[in-house]
Amino acid sequence: MAKNRASWSKRDVISILDFSREELELLFEETDKFVTQEKAPNTLSEKIVATAFFEPSTRTRLSFSVAALRLGAKVIDLSPDVSSLLKGESFADTISMLEGYADLIVLRHPSEGAALFAAELCEKPVINGGDGSQHHPTQAMLDLYTVSRTLGQIDGLVYAVVGDLKYSRTASSLLYALTKFKPKMVHLVSPEALALRKEVYQRLKEVSLPMEVHSSIEEVISQVDVIYLTRIQKERFADPDEYKRLKGSYVITKSLLEKSHAIVLHPLPRLEELPYEVDRTPNAAYIKQAHWGVPLRMALLNLILGDSQ
Amino acid sequence: MAKNRASWSKRDVISILDFSREELELLFEETDKFVTQEKAPNTLSEKIVATAFFEPSTRTRLSFSVAALRLGAKVIDLSPDVSSLLKGESFADTISMLEGYADLIVLRHPSEGAALFAAELCEKPVINGGDGSQHHPTQAMLDLYTVSRTLGQIDGLVYAVVGDLKYSRTASSLLYALTKFKPKMVHLVSPEALALRKEVYQRLKEVSLPMEVHSSIEEVISQVDVIYLTRIQKERFADPDEYKRLKGSYVITKSLLEKSHAIVLHPLPRLEELPYEVDRTPNAAYIKQAHWGVPLRMALLNLILGDSQ
Amino acid sequence: MAKNRASWSKRDVISILDFSREELELLFEETDKFVTQEKAPNTLSEKIVATAFFEPSTRTRLSFSVAALRLGAKVIDLSPDVSSLLKGESFADTISMLEGYADLIVLRHPSEGAALFAAELCEKPVINGGDGSQHHPTQAMLDLYTVSRTLGQIDGLVYAVVGDLKYSRTASSLLYALTKFKPKMVHLVSPEALALRKEVYQRLKEVSLPMEVHSSIEEVISQVDVIYLTRIQKERFADPDEYKRLKGSYVITKSLLEKSHAIVLHPLPRLEELPYEVDRTPNAAYIKQAHWGVPLRMALLNLILGDSQ
């Protein structure tokens, strides 16, 4: 355990693939402490955390801010200047500036690889708060934590990942995360136009993640333990009529869940794919999931920036 | 008194109508402490306050932020994400997110009833920082505090509420607040097009608030003790000429005040209705009023979030 | 020394011309402490610093924020409301509002004289974070600190100030700062269209700053000890072809520096005038310069707001 703890110290968090099962399990145990603890320790009182969001994301930005503040850290935010930064200086110079000001950078960026590039430039730890279309490692950590603490296990379960598997970085990240565990089966449920990218599918095949492709949630609902739902955005469809025709197959309704014991996860924010009527079903796990976002990120920041013990 | 103090604990602040005279007087006494105290107590050091302003308002946002910070609380602000939130997820989901992050939410919203809706959804206290066209309870508290601490009383005075009574939520809120006290008379002074909404007038009539309607401040200036001035915005008039013709009747000039002992209040920001020449008259109370915004909100946050004693 | 320290207390920082050589040297000595100290003292824990940037400036805003936070102060930021403030109330009323909320205001404004005007209105210290085209005093302090701590002296050196001398407030501020010391020579290197404003040149002449005007850096490169480079913005040229033709004369390349022992300073952000290849030359001092921005501003805030000793 002590070894794992040391492996987190001052570490970049770029892709969930960079973490071992043991490291993730340690993170989950640390998260448990912050879930139950009323009063947060003041472990980061000498630290400054910078949030640099080149794409808006309320939940990710605020959950990191709250996590840092609760541990006593100070937070600086790049938001007021993002629009002029995008027109102005290079990304490399912006990162170098933040390296001078902060002890850790949380970055969200539309470009694939932006977080990795920042981490290579910067001697301070960089946390990827989502970049490109594949990586959002802290969301995947939260997803697995929620499965683990709700169902008692991650291994041996049947998962359905539903919706836009092409553009949703949370879907890809969760699939990468599952390769660190032993799921019984992963059903990929999406319209063809929003199917998982070939390169992601190949990578998962190589590590023998058991997967099946489906075009409707109805086909698998009776077998799954975990439904992971993502937003389907109208704009992704060339033809609005196709959107109307297809969207029903990726909406989780209350009546659909009556046939199912599965827990429902969603990274939020949601659109039509997750109606409010589901909030009060026993299946809904996404509200708890959202609330655990802060303690999980407290545990993460504390492992990375706190004194190794 | 102890009973009143308990009645403030964990309370929502949606409309000034929800508070009793005794509760307001307790708030004013607590405010006195923060006005005179040099060093603020660190009573909220474990708390996080979220400011969620779906409409810009510098004074209200910053005075709540400063009040929270001075009491040791941390502040998170939704501003950088407001534009994308307005296009994106539901207001209910946004409030639910903030409920997970903060111990109290200060909300400003253009829609009537937004604060009440948020308070119903959210188990944490919600403070209405202004919604729709009628409610801005903390401004009304500040207005009455200023009258009370400047003139020594709220009862028995003659008030003139002047300007845009139709769209100004601060004017309606003050009138609602006055129903908790015993003003001698309230003069409503506005152009016809900007007269008090019928439903507000009716409600005030029902509780027998003594009111008279006027179309010019000149008609009542010699009798009033308190002038409450609001902005008249050009855009409210269909005809720009009408604006030019009328605005003079709702401007408080230095020469007008020479005939008057009245104190002048204004929620700020101001436009042409309150020329700078008035700032140095003995009548001007709005600068003091603005500076008392922080101690009043410190008292409010402390009563709601501090330990009940 | 004690006398100098007192002269900094509660002081406005509007123009570098307002400070004596002794005062600047005291600031530099105080900065040394914050450069070497690992743990910042909590001297400003009762203070609130407001950043009011009516023009975006990431480095200046964040370096002041970080400096204040590291000293234990709280920071409030006007950014979310700047666009509505620019349409709305007067600048004077905005400053008066901030005076009520904060213990010190850091201001950036496009208009010449905005900081002076604010300082006259406001009893709390105002720091000019850049206004108009001539003044950015804390950047000039940082520039001279970097020269002093890199070359061991400010006097007796040969300087080249290169690029846009007309619109760059950092260039003018540095020139004003040099009048407090004894440089051997200052070369002004710019295209004619971007030459130093006559009024600035006159003012420098009056205090006998030794100056020479050049149109290319090549002319002086072999003699200079310090190259101060500023951005040349395409938009300043009426004719894009002229920009293309001229810009080469104001770019500092690695091969150019092979003939030179000069250190290179740049206020950042940079554009084409300072290629990345220069970053790894021994001449590059601008990265160190940027990192010293925080300790210098810590020293400044501490001298102004801390207890005089």
From TrEMBL, chains A, B, C:
Biochemical pathway: Pyrimidine metabolism; UMP biosynthesis via de novo pathway; (S)-dihydroorotate from bicarbonate: step 2/3
Pfam families to which the protein is assigned, alphabetical: OTCace, OTCace_N
Protein name: Aspartate carbamoyltransferase
Aspartate/ornithine carbamoyltransferase Asp/Orn-binding domain boundaries: 156-303
Domain of life, per lineage: Archaea
Function summary: Catalyzes the condensation of carbamoyl phosphate and aspartate to form carbamoyl aspartate and inorganic phosphate, the committed step in the de novo pyrimidine nucleotide biosynthesis pathway.
Residues annotated to bind carbamoyl phosphate: R59, T60, R108, H136, Q139, L268, P269
Gene3D superfamilies: Aspartate/ornithine carbamoyltransferase
Domain called Aspartate/ornithine carbamoyltransferase carbamoyl-P binding: residue spans: 11-148
Originating species: Candidatus Marsarchaeota G1 archaeon BE_D
NCBIfam families: asp_carb_tr, PRK00856.1
A GO MF label: aspartate carbamoyltransferase activity
